[in-house]
C-alpha cells in the first residue's frame, strides 16, 4: 500500500497561498446562508439556459455565413480538437477594439481556459532561470501568487500607495532585487478597480508606469476583469491601449462580462521574440507552445458560446453589461453609504471609496484573521475576506474585504448591521 | 521597444519535444489534401450539432430530477464558477464502474481540461525536488514528455520490448537512477494499444508491473485513451482495475469516446496523502489545489455536455462506441491486409499487428525523418509521423507511424499505394 506525505509532493502544496484559497472556499461552503460579502463571483441575475443554445447556434451561423464554412467544416470546428491558440481570436480582437480601443492582430491572441490559464502560461514562459522574479502590487490576487508559486517564480511586493501603485517603491524594489543578482521579468498590475484593494491608477500614473517598464526593461502584466464596472465616471484607457513599446501583456477574462461557466479568457501577447534560428515570432506563439502541453486547446464549444455572445452584442460587452454595471454601481454606493451611516467619520473604522469593481476595503482597530472570520460566520452570519490573505506575508492584519457583486440591497443592509455588531462586540 | 529572444524565456520553449508537436501540426495544416495517416484525432462521422443541445438539456434534467436541484441551483451549476474538482464526478465514477469495472469514490476524481491537464497536474504534484525523475515506456506520447519538461521532471525511457513494457529494462533503469541519487516518482504507461507503438500488455505483465511498482515504491500513471477500441478480442483489465495498493493514478480521456471539442478528461487519484498537520487527504485533493492555480475549474458547460452524453448511454461509452469501434477495427484490418499485399513477407518492410487503437508502426530499411515526411507530403500526398519524434533522443529512425482513425477504406488503399511508391523510390 502506498504511503505518501505532502512533503513528498511539490512544495507549493504546503504553501500558504494555495491553502488560503481552499480555506476561503471551504468557509463559504460551510455557511451557505451567511451574507456573502466574501464572494468574488459575478451576479446571477442574467443567467438563462436558452442563451447557451442561442449563442452556440449564432456562432455556427457566423461560421457558415460570415466565414463561408461548409457544414462539415462547421462541425469539425466545434467538435474536434482545434488550433491551440483558439478559434474566436478574430472576435476577441474586435471586442478589444470596440470596448477598449486596443488594436491587435488576432495572431497575438491566445484563447485560454479562463484568465487563470492566461496568467499561468505567461508566468511559465517568463520564468527561465532561478534568478527570475516578478513584481506585483500588494495586496494582490491569490491566483497570481499561486500560479507564480507553481512555476517557482518569487513575487516581490510593490506598495499600492495612493495612486494604485507606488512607483518610487517599485524603483526601490527593482534596484534592491538587481543588487542581489535577481532579474525582474515583469510587474503584475490591475489598473482598474483592483482585487482586492479596489484601487485604480490615474492616467498619468499609467503613463509613468509604462515609462518605467520601458526604461527598466521589463513587462507589465495587465489584468482587467473589472474594467467595465465603473460607478459612473469616464473609463480610463487600459495600459495596453497606451502601450507603444509592446511592454504590456494583457490578461483578459470573460468570466465577469460574459459567462463564468464556460471558462474562456485570453492573453494578448504581441511582443516579438527572436528564436535561436533568427526568426521573429510572437510571444503569443510561445505561449501557445506551452498551452499545448497544459490543456492542448480551449474547448471550441466553450469558445463558440462566447463567440455567439460577442456576435449578439456587436462585440461590445460594455454595452451588453450596462444593466449589470448599474447594479454593481448601485450596490457599491449603497455599501459606502451604509458604512458611513454605521461608522461615524473620525472614528476608528475607515474604508476606501472605489470608483468601480466589486470590492471595498475596511480598516478596523483590532486584528482581522481567519478565526474572526469563522466567528463572524457562526455568530453574525456574515462572510467577508481577511485582507491578510492577499499579502502573502505581512500586511492587511487590520483589514477586511467586502464584495458587492452577489448581494441584494437588502442583504447589504443586513450584512452591514452584522458587521456593525461584530465591530461593537470587538470594541466593547 | 521590447527586445526578447527565446533564450530569455523558459527553456522548454527551445526543446525538441515542443517544437516537434508544432512541426507535425504545421505540416498537416500545409497539406490538407494529403492522405491523413498522421492524424491522431477521432473519426468525424458521428458529430451532430443537435447532440450538444440535447446533452446539455439532459444533464440539466438530471440535476432537477435525480439530484433534486431547484432552477436557480441548476443555473448556478452550469453558469457560475464551479467546484475545482468538477461537477460530474459521480457520473465519471459510474462510467468507470460500468465500462472498466473500476470502483472509485467520486471524491478521488478530478475533472480536468482534457487528459492533458490531468497529466500536467499529476506531474506538477509529483515533481518535488531536483532529484525527481519519471519513467516512461519509450516510444511515448509527446504530450507526456512536453508536460514533464514544463515541470522540469526528466523522463527516463524504458524499453517496450515484446510485452508492452520490458520489466527487466525497467528494473535496470530504476537501479541505475538510484545509484546516481535520483528518486523515481512513477512510470507512465499506456497498457492498451499504446500511442505511438500500438503495443499492449498481457494480463500477467500488468500484474507483474503492479508488483514492481509496489516493491520499488513508485506510482504508475496509466493513460487509457484507446482502451475501448479493440479489434474484437476480449478486453483486458486496466491496471487500475487490478490495483490493490493504490499504486495507479488513472488518466482518463473523453476525447476519443465522447467529444474532443469539449476538452473534458479526468484523473483518478485515490492515493492517501498525509499532510503536515497529520490529516489524511487524497492525492485528488492535492491535484485540485494545483488545478485551482492553473485553470480554476473545468467549464461546467463542457462538463454538462459530457454528463448528458454519459446519461444518454447509461454511463457505458463502450456500448455507445460499438459502431465506431467496429469502424476502427475494420480500418485496422484493412491497413494490415493492405500492407501485407504491398510488402511481401520476408522483405525489408515490416510492421506490427496491434490488437486495437489507432496506430500501426512500419519499419523500413532507410532513414525516416522530417525531410522524408515533407517529401512524402509534397510528392506522394501522404502524411504519416516519423517515430523518432516519440523517442526524445535516439530511436525510431527507421520507423513511421500510420493512423487508421480518420481515413476511409478508399483512402487507406490510396495511402498505401503512395507509401509503396515512396518505399520503391527510396529502395530503387
Give a verbal description of the structure.
The structure is a homodimer of 428-residue chains. Chain A has 428 residues and is α/β, with parallel strands linked by helices. The first copy, chain A, folds into 2 domains: 8-37 and 322-427, Aspartate Aminotransferase, domain 1, CATH 3.90.1150; 56-319, Type I PLP-dependent aspartate aminotransferase-like (Major domain) (Aspartate Aminotransferase, domain 2), CATH 3.40.640. Helices cover 43% and strands 15% of the residues of chain A. Chain A is built from 15 helices and 16 strands. In chain A, a hairpin with a 5-residue loop joins strand 10 and strand 11 (280-282). In chain A, helix 1 crosses helix 6, helix 5 packs across helix 6 (142-150) and helix 13 (322-342) runs parallel beside helix 15. The radius of gyration of chain A is 22 Å and the shape is globular. The model of chain A has no long low-confidence stretch (mean pLDDT 95). Chains A and B meet through strand 1, helix 1, helix 2, helix 3 and helix 5 of A and strand 1, helix 1, helix 2, helix 3 and helix 5 of B. Strand 10 (272-274) of chain A pairs parallel with strand 1 (4-5) of chain B, so a sheet runs across the interface.
